[in-house]
Structures are given as structure tokens and as C-alpha cells.
């Protein structure tokens, strides 16, 4: 017996299997997303310089501070440094215009973290994407400041070159997506005018009120700049290339699966392609829609927020199709030039339903009741 | 990874796999160690519990101070789903009492002190050619029942129950499970390498007993040497083929294996029998052969001792009832940083708090994990990343079931098919929040059982 005791002189751990776990942690997932955002954030800093830094730093500081304070007040374990709040701050910050006063950015971030995340019970319990909630709040409160775009520094230095190729763009100081919207609005107006003239009996004049089929939306000319990032817009709205690099990094690291990005870009791309084929004089080419605005950022970084998207693969595909479709609906028919924010929030509210509809069937079928 | 056999062989089938599942590190550190027999010294005792299988416990038919010989029945099975228990050594019964069982409970156990005179070691490697004509299905079944055979892969389900012919559910295929998808463990691998003969004989006998036309031996492609060996052994055996399966956990799960090899879905809540299949572990097949050829009862098995917390790793042929502590001592004892002792592999093996428990019929390995192998991460909030859903080999929604069982909402857990869970551990393995999902599912099952 003495020998037996010798073998077991130490206290053994007892736990439930499995005893192996993959080294991936939630913190690492969050860090990977933040790394994925890095190219776009660096591009924003390069294009917009100081103002961009002010917005991003305000967002980061406010986000960490808010979550830290919440946990202190509620006497909960501190989660301000688990990385998730940094991702929220980055996504929100990159969706804001560089000229936004820093205090507005701070207010938006506080609302995003406190109302949209912590009040629901913190990480994993929120229904809506916190960053998009913060942005929606800012849109409602400071609409003017949220839609005033300034040229980025890259444009300042190349303004002569830009003038040659992008006359209308430089003149109006609009974002590419507003430019894409203009011909649509013009066409709508023309259609209304035509109806009025027909009602008034001026049939001959009405017949002349047609769009010149040979023209193309001027925004098509700057497709290249949209892809590279030399345009006006929100911090992260500018460079599709940088978001693509970040998105491919996330796919490579398996931080996200392909389902949502493919579904978002697929449905938006198909719609953009269809309207473009039907009427290229009015609708911008599909690449403008895919690379313009927040489309790529949304497909890889916003719609893929695990907390607010469905659990099953088929659910995620439906979610992505819905996001892409709603973005295009708002861009083509809605009052705003860009639709990412509302598309995400609307589909977030569909997530519980999608989860219910797309519950996976167990191997061997559903158990007999 | 070593090369797979390249020779074209009609017995060789393609690579089979199932959907989802995970790729844990293999860590088959003991796969090169030949099987070594462990003999119990005189004066030492073995502990033979009356419950080593799924089903009704046995009734002891010996009393203290009785003399017993190796292979003598000491526990009688009185139910259909049960298996008799035999003495694994020559000795004298020390006591019949409730003693500590690997399950953590006390179970009626016969403790036997070994005497000087032990029988000659059994031949377990080379079996004579068998004449299948000699055996009738009913006779094979009764031999298997009397030998106390149970599944050696871990679940320990009485083998005879699976093989007994049932007119309503005819069996056409027997799959021998040589996947050994559990990391660390190598006992089946060594058996296939060192003793392919009895495995093939056992498969033929099982086919005869169950009335099955086809026999398939399934091996994962990370064991090319075993694949080569079995291929050679089945060269001239009719109706028997080899299925090479992709190395993925849990490839050796009964339902996953049937899906992979035969593309058949075992109904939820049903048995492989429902789709005309019986799955038998390779170790069990070998035991079937020896039971039929020599009438040898199930009194010894191969156990892998592995992990970084043990001085010497290896594969050992041990008498059933040998104390875990004794086997570990044989392997040089625990290292200083040993932290956890598992009776089985790291994915499904339960831990034991005491080493004073016996090796059972279903114990395929003892894994001693060191501090460095043990993860002690705290669980954080679920971020709904759906990795558990993406990897669940049963296609369940583990996070939902875990939340339901945490909230003691048994109905919701059952609605999400809690009972289809086989506790393979894939969900907890992939969870980035380190939530012990499998544990929650297990506790949900317990809640559901208590509610009935």
C-alpha cells in the first residue's frame, strides 16, 4: 500500500471532458478583427491626417472609458480590455466623417457602448450592432455634421489632376455615392415632369423629355479612385482596397466564414448589375456600388459581427442577402445616398427570426415527438 | 504524415468522411511502442466491479476466501442487456464490497489477491485459420455472451445484444471500427499492427452471427502502417473490404462512421441496427475470435498509457481489474508536473480523482496530462460566433442547448435535440470563449433524466 500512496501523493484535477481546447480565444478573435481594420484605418489617417486621428482616438478612448465605468458601477468583472469594445470603436470611428467635431464622436461612442451594448447585458447580449446604433444616433442628432464631406489630403495635392477627370465631383464636393444618386434623382424628376406635361396635354413636349441614352453617370469615371480611396466620404468609406485586404485576412485566419461577405456582395452586385444593364444612362456601373461607400467594410466587418448575425450557415446567407438587398434598395430608391447602416440595423432585428427559421436538422433527422 | 499505400488493390476503397467535426492535435506519442504484457505479482490484488458495461449490473457468485481461477465467472448476468464478469487472475477472493469505481461512485466489487500460480500467458497475436462452417450464428452469440464481451471502444455495450439476429431488422454490413480518432490513444492501432489475424477472424464470425453479407474495416488515414497490414491480411478474405477514412474527430463515432462509409443516416434516437449496420471495435472483434476459437473469456485488454505527465508511455496488455495506480507505477509513476489523470483519451475520457480504481473492460487508455497540457482558461461571455454550430458532428446548436440547460429549461433543450448529443466534446474544443459547452449539455441530459 505504501507504494501505491507514493504514486498518488499529489492532488489530481477533476473536470468534465474535453480536456483539449483550441488555442483561439474571444480576445484573439477581437484582435484579429482589429488587425483586419488596420489597413483601412491607416489609409484613413494617410488621406485625412489630423482630423481622422482625432475622430479615431476620441472613439477609442470614449469606448474603453464607457465600458470600464459601466463595469465599475455595476461591480462586474472588468471587460473593457477584452478587445470587443475596441472593435466597436474602430468600426464606429471609421464610419464617421473626418470633419466631425471630436465631442460628437465621443457622444456617439458613449451611446453605442452604453445603450446599445452594456444596457443589454454586455458582450454577446446586444440585439443591434453597437457601432451602427451609435452612428444612427449621431445621424439623428447631428445630421448636418454627419453629411458634410471634405476632400482628403490626397485630393488637395492632386486637385489639378482631379479636376480634369472628375469635374463634377470636384465641383460639388459630394461623396461618390451622392454622385451616383444624382442621375437617378434627375431621371425621377424628368419622369414626374413628363407626367405633368402629359396631364396638361403637351404631348409633343412630353416626348422630348427623355434621358439622353448616350450619356453615362459621371461617377463612372472615378471608379478607380473609389477603389483606391482617393475620394471624399467617411474615414473608412474611402478605400475599398484596404477593406478587401483586411477582409481577406479575416477569411484566411478563419475569423469569419465566407457566407456573409459573399451573400452581401452577391445580392448587391446582382441588383446593381441588373439596373445598370437595363439603364446605363441613369445607373452607375456595378463596381461603383460594390466599391463605393461602406459596401466592402459592411460585407466583411459589420454584417459579420457574430453577436448580431444568425447562428446557422443558411441563416447567415439569408442575413447577407437581406443586407445586400436592403443596401441597394436604399441606394437606388431611398432618400439617403448610402444604406449600410439601416440595412444592418433592419437585418439585426431579423436575426432571432432567421435563427428560428434556419435551425439545423440534427444528423438522422428531428427526434420523433 | 507517412505515405499511404500506393499499390492498386481492389480491396482498397476511397477516402471517406463526414460533415463538420474537428481536427485536434493527434499526439499519438505511444504509437511506436509495442504492446507489453503486465503480470500481476503474487500478493497484489485486482478489483473487479460487477458493473463494467451498459446495462444491468452482475450479481457476485463468489464470497470472501473463495479460491478462483483465471476465467472463472465471478459475476452472473441476469438480464438481456448485461455481460458476465470473470476473474482475470488465479487467486483468493479478499472481499466482496462496494468499492470506488472509475465513475466516481462506489460499486459492488470483487477484490482478488493473486496467488503464486498464475496461468500461462494467452496467445493474442496469431490465431489459427477458422472454419466458418463449424459455427452456427446462435452458437457464436451464446459464446460471446458467456465470454462477457462488451464494446472495447469505450461505451462498453454488451456485444451479443448487437449481434443477435432480429428478423425485423436484418443486418447487411458489419463495420469494424479501427479509426481511433481520439487523440493520444494508440491501443487499437497497436492491435491492428501486431495482431491483424484475430481481428479478421472476429469480423468473419461477427458477420456470420449477425447474418451480414459485408464486412468493412474502417481505419483513419493517419495510420498507414495499420492500413497496409490489414490490407495484406484481408487479401484472400471474401466479402471483407477496407475503408480508409479521413483523419477527423469524431470519425470513430458510430453514426459518423456509418454516414462516412455507407452514406446512411442512423435515425435520431435510433440504433445502427435500424439501417442494417452493426459497428464493432477492432479490439472487440479480436476478443470475439478468441472466445469462439478457445472459449476464452474477456479478462484482459490493451491499454494505452500516455500523456506528458507519465514517465514512460506505452501500450500494455493488462488483466481487467488491475489498479490504475499499479499500471502507472509500472510506467515509472507520475512526473512532477502531472495534473490530470483521464480514463480514456482527452476528448471524451472522464477524469479520476483517485488512482485506486480498476481498469475496466471499456478502458482503452490512461492519459496523464501535465500542467502544460491542461488548459485553465476562465470562461467568458458567449459571442454567438457559431463555431460550435459549424463544427458539431451531430449538427446541433450547442450554444442554445447550453444556455437552456444553464437556465434549467429542459423543454427548450430537448426541443433543440439535446438527446442526440453524444458528448464528443467538439463544441467545447472550438469555443473561443472557453465555455464548457459539453459539460452544460451533459448536465442538461441529467436534468432531462431526472424530470422523467
The string of secondary-structure elements of chain B, in order, is EEEEEEEEEHHEHHEHEHEHEEHEEHHHHH
- Biggest sheet layout of chain A: none
Strand content of chain A: under 5%
Specify which chain pair forms the largest interface.
Answer: A-B, 49 and 77 residues
How are the strands ordered across the major sheet of chain B? Answer: 1-12-11-10-13
Give an overview of the whole structure.
The complex is a heterodimer of chains A (369) and B (452). Chain A has 369 residues and is mostly helical. Chain A folds into two domains: 121 residues, no CATH class; 184 residues, no CATH class. In chain A, 64% of the residues lie in helices and 0% in strands. Chain A is built from 19 helices and no strands. The N terminus of chain A is likely disordered. Chain B has a domain of 65 residues. In chain B, helix 1 packs across helix 4, helix 3 runs parallel beside helix 5 and helix 10 packs across helix 13. Chain B has a five-stranded parallel sheet. Chain B is globular, with a radius of gyration of 21 Å. By secondary structure, chain B is α/β, with parallel strands linked by helices. The N and C termini of chain B lie far apart (49 Å). Helices cover 26% and strands 20% of the residues of chain B. Chains A and B meet through helix 1 and helix 2 of A and helix 6, helix 8, strand 16, helix 12 and helix 13 of B.
Amino acid at each position: 500500500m505504501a507504494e501505491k500512496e507514493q504514486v498518488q501523493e499529489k492532488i489530481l484535477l477533476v473536470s468534465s471532458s474535453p480536456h483539449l481546447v483550441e488555442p483561439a480565444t474571444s480576445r484573439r478573435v477581437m484582435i484579429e478583427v482589429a488587425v483586419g481594420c488596420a489597413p483601412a484605418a491607416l489609409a484613413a489617417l494617410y488621406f485625412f491626417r489630423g482630423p481622422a486621428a482625432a475622430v479615431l482616438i476620441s472613439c477609442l478612448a470614449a469606448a474603453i472609458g464607457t465600458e470600464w465605468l459601466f463595469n465599475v458601477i455595476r461591480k462586474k468583472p472588468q471587460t473593457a480590455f477584452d478587445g470587443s469594445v475596441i472593435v466597436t470603436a474602430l468600426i464606429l470611428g471609421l464610419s464617421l466623417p473626418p470633419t466631425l467635431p471630436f465631442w460628437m464622436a465621443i457622444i456617439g461612442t458613449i451611446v453605442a457602448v452604453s445603450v446599445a451594448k452594456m444596457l443589454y447585458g454586455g458582450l454577446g447580449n446586444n440585439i443591434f450592432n453597437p457601432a451602427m446604433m451609435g452612428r444612427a444616433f449621431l445621424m439623428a442628432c447631428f445630421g448636418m455634421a454627419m453629411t458634410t464631406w471634405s476632400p482628403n489630403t490626397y485630393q488637395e495635392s492632386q486637385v489639378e489632376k482631379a479636376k480634369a477627370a472628375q469635374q463634377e465631383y470636384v465641383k460639388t464636393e459630394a461623396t461618390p455615392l451622392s454622385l451616383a444618386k444624382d442621375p437617378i434623382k434627375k431621371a425621377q424628376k424628368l419622369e414626374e415632369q413628363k407626367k405633368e406635361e402629359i396631364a396638361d396635354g403637351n404631348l409633343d413636349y412630353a416626348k422630348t423629355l427623355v434621358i439622353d441614352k448616350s450619356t453615362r453617370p459621371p461617377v463612372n469615371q472615378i471608379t478607380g479612385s473609389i477603389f483606391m480611396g482617393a475620394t471624399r466620404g467617411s474615414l473608412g468609406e474611402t478605400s475599398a482596397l484596404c477593406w478587401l485586404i483586411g477582409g481577406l485576412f479575416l477569411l484566411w485566419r478563419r475569423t469569419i466564414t465566407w457566407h456573409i461577405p459573399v451573400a452581401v456582395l452577391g445580392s448587391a452586385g446582382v441588383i446593381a448589375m441588373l439596373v445598370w444593364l437595363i439603364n446605363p444612362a441613369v445607373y452607375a456601373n456595378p463596381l461603383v456600388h460594390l466599391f463605393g461607400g461602406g459596401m466592402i467594410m459592411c460585407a466583411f466587418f459589420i454584417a459579420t459581427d457574430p453577436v448580431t448575425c444568425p447562428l446557422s450557415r443558411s441563416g447567415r446567407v439569408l442575413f447577407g442577402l437581406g443586407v445586400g438587398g436592403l443596401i441597394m434598395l436604399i441606394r437606388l430608391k431611398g432618400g439617403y445616398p448610402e444604406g449600410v447602416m439601416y440595412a444592418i440595423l433592419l437585418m439585426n432585428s431579423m436575426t432571432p427570426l432567421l435563427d428560428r427559421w434556419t435551425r439545423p436538422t440534427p444528423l438522422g433527422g428531428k427526434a420523433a415527438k | 504524415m507517412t505515405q499511404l499505400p500506393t499499390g492498386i488493390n481492389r480491396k482498397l476503397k476511397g477516402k471517406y468522411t463526414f460533415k463538420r467535426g474537428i481536427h485536434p492535435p493527434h499526439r499519438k506519442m505511444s504509437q511506436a511502442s509495442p504492446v507489453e504484457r503486465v503480470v500481476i505479482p503474487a500478493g497484489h490484488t485486482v478489483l473487479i466491479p460487477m458493473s463494467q458495461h451498459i446495462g444491468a449490473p452482475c450479481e457476485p457468485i463468489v464470497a470472501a476466501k473463495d479460491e478462483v481461477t483465471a476465467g472463472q465467472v465471478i459475476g452472473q448476468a441476469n438480464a438481456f442487456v448485461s455481460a458476465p464478469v470473470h476473474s482475470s487472475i488465479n487467486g483468493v477472493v479478499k472481499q466482496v464490497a462496494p468499492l470506488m469505481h472509475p465513475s466516481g461512485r462506489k460499486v459492488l466489487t470483487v477484490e482478488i489477491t493473486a496467488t503464486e500460480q498464475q496461468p500461462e500467458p494467452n496467445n493474442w497475436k496469431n490465431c489459427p485459420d477458422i472454419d466458418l462452417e463449424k459455427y452456427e450464428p446462435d452458437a457464436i452469440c451464446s459464446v460471446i455472451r458467456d465470454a462477457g464481451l462488451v464494446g472495447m471502444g469505450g461505451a462498453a455495450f454488451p456485444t451479443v445484444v448487437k449481434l443477435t439476429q432480429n428478423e425485423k431488422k436484418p443486418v447487411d454490413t458489419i463495420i469494424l471500427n479501427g479509426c481511433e480518432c481520439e487523440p493520444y490513444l494508440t491501443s487499437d492501432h497497436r492491435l491492428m499492427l501486431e495482431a491483424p489475424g484475430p481481428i479478421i477472424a472476429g469480423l468473419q464470425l461477427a458477420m456470420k452471427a449477425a447474418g451480414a453479407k459485408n464486412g468493412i474495416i474502417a481505419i483513419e488515414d493517419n495510420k498507414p502502417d495499420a492500413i497496409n497490414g490489414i490490407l495484406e491480411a484481408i487479401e484472400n478474405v471474401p466479402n471483407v473490404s477496407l475503408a480508409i477514412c479521413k483523419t477527423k474527430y469524431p470519425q470513430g463515432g458510430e453514426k459518423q462512421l456509418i454516414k462516412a462509409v455507407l452514406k446512411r443516416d442512423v435515425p435520431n434516437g435510433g440504433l445502427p441496427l435500424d439501417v442494417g449496420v452493426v459497428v464493432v471495435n477492432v479490439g472487440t472483434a479480436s476478443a470475439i475470435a478468441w472466445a469462439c476459437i478457445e472459449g476464452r473469456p474477456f479478462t484482459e485488454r490493451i491499454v494505452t498509457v500516455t500523456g506528458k505527465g507519465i514517465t514512460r508511455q506505452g501500450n500494455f496488455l493488462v488483466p481487467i481489474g488491475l489498479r490504475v495506480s499499479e499500471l502507472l507505477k509500472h510506467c515509472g509513476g507520475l512526473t512532477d508536473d502531472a495534473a490530470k489523470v483521464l480514463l480514456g483519451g482527452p476528448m471524451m475520457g472522464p477524469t479520476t480523482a483517485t488512482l485506486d480504481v480498476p481498469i475496466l473492460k471499456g478502458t482503452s487508455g490512461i492519459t496523464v496530462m501535465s500542467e502544460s497540457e491542461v488548459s485553465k482558461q476562465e470562461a467568458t461571455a458567449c459571442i454567438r460566433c457559431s463555431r460550435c454550430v459549424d463544427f458539431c458532428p451531430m449538427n446541433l446548436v450547442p450554444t442554445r442547448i447550453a444556455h437552456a440547460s444553464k437556465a434549467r429549461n429542459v423543454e427548450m433543450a430537448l426541443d433543440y435535440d439535446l438527446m442526440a448529443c453524444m458528448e464528443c466534446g467538439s463544441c467545447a474544443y472550438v469555443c473561443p470563449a472557453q465555455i464548457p459547452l459539453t459539460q452544460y449539455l451533459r448536465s442538461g441530459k441529467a436534468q432531462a433524466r431526472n424530470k422523467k
